[in-house]
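Subject: Sanity check before I submit

Could someone independently write out the C-alpha cells for this chain? I want to compare against mine line by line before I put it in a report. The sequence has 740 residues.
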Amino acid sequence: MSRWRYLKFGVVGASGTLVNLLVLYLAQEFFLASIEPATQRLYASLACAIGLATLNNFVWNRRWTWQDRQSQWRGTVAGQFVRYALASWLGTSVQYILTLWLAQHMHYLIGNVLAIGVASVVNYAANDWWTFRGNPRDVSEDETRLRYRYISFALLLLTLAVYVFDLGGENIPRNGDELVYAHIAFQTWLQADVTGQWLPLVSAIQDMRNTKPPLLIWQAMVPLWLGLDWSLWWIRLPSLLYTLATTVLVVWATRRLARWPSMQATVERSPLDAVTLSYIAGLIYLGCFSTYRYGRPYLTSAIETFWMGLPFWALLAMQVRGPQRPALPSAGLFVLTGMSWGMVALHKSFVLLAPLGATLWLALCWQQPREWWSAMWRVGMSVALGTGLFALWFLIDPDPMSVWREFVVGENWGKVGGAQESVYWRTALLGGSSIWVQSLALVQNGLVLGPLIAAVMVMGLKAWPATWRARQQGALQPTALLWMYIAVMSLFFMVPSQRSARYLIPLMPMVAVLCALHLWQLPRWAQRLCLVLGCLMALGGLAFLGLFLWGGWRLDLYPLWGRLGLLLILVLQVLALLRLLWPSASDTTLRASWLWLLGLCVSLFAWFGLLNAPLHSPGNQFDARAQAHVQGAHLLTPSNFNGDFERWRFVLPGVREITPYREEVPTDAAQLRTWFENHDAVIVRRVWNQAEPDCEAAGCDVMGQRLVIRGRHRSSDINWQSVQTPEVLLFWREYLLVKR
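---
Independent answer below. Compare away.
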C-alpha cells in the first residue's frame, strides 16, 4: 500500500488540480468578474479555488490514499480535516505566493499549475507525517529518518524559491549602500558608453566614487554591456548566485563532516541522518535574517562571504580525506587562496587579507605545528598574490591618487583608526558600537535562530579544552578549522572604530555548519529554551507583518478575499508557533520542532515578500504616458540617504538627470513654483492623511501617483498613537508632478 501511496496522492492531486483550475477560471472569468482590476480579482479567485480543491483532496486522500490507516484514527472527521488544513498550510502558502508571482510573467492558469507542482511535495510529506499517521501507529526509525530527509530537502527548495521571489522588488530588505553602488555603476557606464573607458569610477556624490573596488561596480555594468535592461533584478542576480553557491558548500561540508569518524558517534545519537543534517545546515544559513537581507541585494556581502571562505572549504576538503594527520597542502591550494583573496580585495577591501592570512596560518599550524615556518611563507605568498591583484587597480586607474585618498585612507583607514585614543576606547567599551555588542553580532545576524547560535557558540567554548587535549594526543578535529575562522575574524572586527554585526556575515556559513553538527549535543532543556526564545522572536516578526497587513488593509492595498487569504496564512503561522512553545523532551518531538522553527523563518520571509507584491504590480507604477512624458527630463526627488535618489533610475528609466533634495524641505505651492524654474519634473511625498499637492497654485500637473514603503523613521515618529494608524506610519504616496 505504502509503495503506491505517493502515486495515489498524485492522482488525487491531479483531481484537485482540475477542481482548482475549473473554479479559478469560472471565478476569474464569470462569478467574480465584477471585481476590477483583474489582478486584484485574482486574489479572490485563488482563495475560492484553493479552498474547494483542499476539500476535494482531503476527501479522496482519506478514503483512498491513506485508507489503510483510518482504523487507527480515534478522532472525528472534522478534527482530521483541521489537521489536514494545518499540515498543508506551507504548501498552500507556496502555491498562493508562486501563483501571484508567476501571473506577472505568464498566464495565471499556467502559473498556477507550476505552483501546484512545487507545493505537492510539501503537502505529501506533511500529511503523511501528521494528518494520516494514525493514533497510534508504529513507524520504523529508518522510515522516519527518510521522511525527515524528504521534508528538510523540500523545505530547502522552498527557501531557495523564496529567495528568488521578488528579487527585483524595490522594497526587499536591503542596505542603503546598494543604491550608492548602483549610482556609481550607472554613471561609470555612461562614461564607458562615450569613451570606452571603465575607469576611473564616476559618481555625482562627493568622495564616494571609490567607496568600493571596481569589480563590484563592473559587475553591475555587465547587464548593460550585454544589452539587458538596467533593472534591480539583473544587478542583484550575482549576489543571489553567490549566496546559493555558498549554501551548496555549507550542505557539502556538513555532510562530509557528519561522516568523519570522530563525529559518527554524535550523528548516530542524533534522530537525523547525515544527509538531513546537511539540509538543516543549509536551512540554518538561509534562515538567518542577515543572509536574507544582505545575500540578495546588490552588495558585497554575498561576494566576500563566498571568496573569503573558499580557501577554507578547500582546506577542509583535504582534511576530511582520511583520519590521518594531513600534510601541508600543495602549492595549488595557495595559488587558489591568493586568487580568491584577490577577488576579496577587488570587491571589498585589501584589509581583510591580514585576518584571513592569520587564520589560514593558525589552521596549518594546528595540523602541523613543526611546519610553522613553511606554512608562514606559503601563506605570505598567498597574501602577496592577493595584494598584487588588488594593486592592479592603481596601475590601470587614470587617477590613482583619488583611489588612495578615497578608498585606502577614507574608506579603510577611516574605519580601522583615525580617531583619538580616548574616543576610541570610549566607543570600544561603551555604546552601541562597543566590543560587547559586537560579541553578540552572530546572534544578531541569526535573529530567530540567534538563541541556537548562542547555545552552540557557548558549547564550543566549553569544549575547546577537550579539543586541545585531543590534538596533543594526535587526534585532529576538522571542525577546529571552522572554529578558528569564527574566532579570529570575530576578534579582528572588534579592533576597528566602526563595529557592525554585518561585518561578521562571512562567518555565518561556518556557524550554520557547526549548529547543524552540534545541535543534538545540546541538552534537551537547552534545545527547548532555544525553541521558545526563537518562537518569541518570530512572534515579534509576525506582529510587524500583522501591522503591515493592517495598514495595507486600511489602504485597500489588498482586496477583501485577498485579505482573508492573507489572514488565513497568518492564523496558521500563529498556530505553528504555539506548537513550538510546548515541545516535549523527546528527540522525536524536538526534531519536529526544529523543522517547524526553520519553516517559520522561511515563512516570515515569504510572507513579507507577499505583502510587498502589490506594491510592485503594474497597477502601482507610473503608466506609459507618464514614462513617455519624462523622457530626457531633469527630475527633482526627495532623498534621505546617500544615493537614495538613484532608485528613480529604475522607476523612471527615461529621465536624463536626477537631483535630490532633503525630504524635510516643505513642498508647498511656492516651493514647487521655484523648483519648476530649473526642473522638468518633481517627486513629492505625502503621508496617507495629507492632501495631494496643490497643482493649481503651483502651475503643474499630476502625471501619476504610487504607494511605497516609508523608511528611515525618526525615533519621535514611532509611538503608540502612530501604531494605531499604520497606513500613515508605514506608507508614503509619491506624486509625479510636471510643469505645465
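---
OP: Matches mine. For the report I'm noting this point. Strands lie at 634-639, 657-662, 681-686, 700-709, 731-739.
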